[in-house]
Amino acid sequence: MMPAVENIVIGIIAALHIGILILEMFFWDKPAGLRVFGLTQEFATASRVLAANQGLYNGFLAAGLIWGLVPAAGGANVKVFFLTCVLIAGLYGAATASRKILFIQAVPAAIGLLIVFLS
Question: Residue 1 has what pLDDT?
Answer without folding.
Answer: 62
